[in-house]
Structure formats: structure tokens, C-alpha cells
């Protein structure tokens, strides 16, 4: 699932990951363009563009998790949909906080989902495997965390309110990543248990390799 990081061509198999990765790529380009001396003044327009990149990341994830809540029970267990609705609310709260801060800085938040690359591709098919979707989510969470970490480093001692907001959201996303990893491990264990001894033997052989 890492092909989308290797070049400019988008990964059509994992468009959600491509979208998150492209947002990070734009943010990194903005950061690299603004890096100067240690005592540089932070470009307010650069900060606003980085905040809009963070906003786009959150909006992409809102759509992703909301889509989970609308999928069939065969695709996403009903018992998990309440958890994903809570995630939708958390990600939307992050987006709202970022948007409000952009306004505080005199900017214009871009709340149009079309601002994310190929937004219409961020769809899920009901025949996708839930554990594979969770693996994709985990990678996306880590990409988002790396983006926020880059922004925090760029801001350094400048724009303390912006830095604190991004640090707070980054901490929450780190918690999300841990939850997704734990849920995926749990689902994999259940799948193996349901498959019976043959599955355990296969898993053991995979571990040996």
C-alpha cells in the first residue's frame, strides 16, 4: 500500500491514501519553501495554507468514517458503526477548530471537500474487506500525524496558538492510530478463530517466514 508515496502518479487502488499523501506533499512543499534562518519571521500566508492542508486532511477523514457508518452490516459490523460515528464527530470537531483558527488569523477556511485531491474517488465498495480498510486507515492516520509533526517543527516558537492547536490535534490522531491498530488486530484474531485450525496453521507458517 505504499506505492502512492513513490512518485507523482496516484494510486488508483487506494485513492483515499493518495489523497492524504498528496495533501501532505503540498504541505511539505510549502514548509520547504518557507524554511530560512533560525530567526526567520513566519509567513502568515504560509501558515494559513498549512492550516488549510490540515483542514483538508480532517475533512477527508470525516467523509471516510461517515461512509463506514452507511455501509452494510456485512461490510462493517453494526457493533462498530457507533465507534465510527464517534470518530466522525471527533474529526469534524478538529476540522471546526482549524477552520475557526484560520478565521482568527484573518484567513478563509476552504470547507469545500473538492479541495481534496480527487475527492469523488474516496468511496468504499461493500465488498471490501474490513481489516484491509482498517489497514488503509492506519496508514492514513500516520501520514496525517507526520504532516502535523512537520507543521509543528516549522512553526517552532512562532505562532504559539497555532502550534498548540496542531499539537492537540496530533495527540488525538495518535490515539486514533492506536485504536485503529488495536481494532484491526482484534478483528484479525476473530477471523482466524472463526476460520478454525487451518487458519492458525497458515498464520504460523506466515510467522515462520
Task: Describe the protein.
The protein is mainly alpha-helical and about 210 residues long. It has a single domain, classed as Ferritin, core subunit, four-helix bundle (Ferritin, Up-down Bundle), CATH 1.20.1260.10. About 70% of the residues lie in helices and about 0% in strands. It contains six helices and no strands. The protein has helices at about 15-35, 45-70, 80-105, 130-155, 160-195, 195-209. α1 runs antiparallel to α2, α2 (about 45-70) runs antiparallel to α4 (about 130-155) and α4 (about 130-155) packs antiparallel against α5 (about 160-195). The two termini are about 20 Å apart. The model is unreliable at about 1-15 and about 115-120 (pLDDT under 50).
Give a brief outline of the structure.
It contains six helices and no strands. By secondary structure, it is an all-alpha fold.
Task: Record the SSE blueprint.
Elements: H1 15-34, H2 44-70, H3 78-104, H4 130-155, H5 160-195, H6 197-208
Helix pairs in contact: 1-2, 1-4, 2-3, 2-4, 3-5, 4-5
Q: Proportion of β residues?
A: under 5%
Helix content: over 70%
Element-level helix/strand string = HHHHHH
Which CATH top level class fits?
A: Mainly Alpha
CATH superfamily name?
Ferritin, core subunit, four-helix bundle
CATH topology: Ferritin
From the structure above, extract its key features.
6 helices; Ferritin; single chain; 209 residues; 71% helix; mainly alpha
